[in-house]
Amino acid sequence: MSETNKVCLLTGVGPGTGTALAKRFAGGGYKVAMLARDADRLAEIAATVPDTYPFPCDVADDSALERVVVAIQKQLGDVDILIHNAVSANLVDFQELEAEDLRKNFDTNTVALLRLAQLTAPAMIEKGSGVIMATGNTAAYRGKASFAGFAPTKAAQRILLESIARSVGPSGIHSVYVAIDAVIDVPWTRIAFKDRPDEFFCKAEDIAEECFHFAHQRKSTWTSDVVIRPYCEQW
Fold this sequence. Notes:
Layout: E1 7-11, H1 17-27, E2 31-36, H2 39-48, E3 52-56, H3 62-75, E4 81-84, H4 99-127, E5 130-136, H5 151-168, E6 173-180, E7 183-184, H6 187-192, E8 201-202, H7 204-214, E9 225-228
Parallel strand pairs: 1-2, 1-4, 2-3, 4-5, 5-6, 6-9, 7-8
Helix pairs in contact: 1-7, 3-4, 4-5
């Protein structure tokens, strides 16, 4: 099957990394099914970027997510690459964290990854190929004081993907967690960090390029868990 017949399902298509990923995979020959809550943004991208298709959806809604995946399969075909980029976060101390907010973040960051993998992996296994990818950050490895509502969900997301990798890897499915240790270059971060030089920011298109690379690695050298960061990032 040529890449022009392959399907990439991408969640979290916002103005930064999500849009860059949609453009890179569409430019690389894929039909990109874009999921996000903002229907207008998806429609705008679909109108300007060939081979991108809008599927408005809140990935935290399990029933809606299942309906959308079925619609994608009917309209575009089975999913060859799954990229879970959607994210929900509350950056507060644990004493200020509402339990319901933590549950919401788990639903978006972790449970949605589980359901998407469950819904798309069977076709990948039948083909003997496919990619399951999630984008994250270093909150998946450490819990800072103000990340009590976020880090647990990202750590769980990373470990869930590792478990998925051990399960489907022998069937030829590449699972990879891409942690982004950076401030991504979007308009609001430029305002928030207005005194920082250009090299402080991570370019969304560069993130997309690396994700495209990871999705096309040879089987003898698969990356499974990786951190990318600007050269000047303190870590």
